[in-house]
Amino acid sequence: MREAGVAVIGGGAAGLFAGCFLKMNGADLVILERNAECGLKLLITGHGRCNITNLKEPRELKRGYHEASNFVYPAINSFPPSACVRFIEDEVGIRLKTEENDRVFPVSDKASDIRDGLVVYIGKDRIITGFKCVSIRKENCLFEVVSEDGHIVRAKHVILACGGMSYPHTGSDGSGFKLASALGHSIAKPAAALATVNTSAEFCGPLAGVTVPGVVLTLYDRGAKRAVSGGDLLFTHKGISGPSVMELSREIPARPDNTYILADLAPGITDRSLTELIDSKPRALFATALASLVPRRLAESLLDDTQIKCSGVTSAERKKVLLRLKEFRFDINEAPDINSAYCTRGGVELSELDRKSFGSGIIPGLFIIGENTDVDGISGGYNLAFAAASAHLAVKSIVG
Ligand SMILES: Cc1cc2nc3c(=O)[nH]c(=O)nc-3n(C[C@H](O)[C@H](O)[C@H](O)COP(=O)(O)OP(=O)(O)OC[C@H]3O[C@@H](n4cnc5c(N)ncnc54)[C@H](O)[C@@H]3O)c2cc1C
Question: Domains in the chain, start-ordered, CATH in brackets?
Answer without folding.
Answer: 2-192+338-399 (3.50.50.60), 196-336 (no CATH)
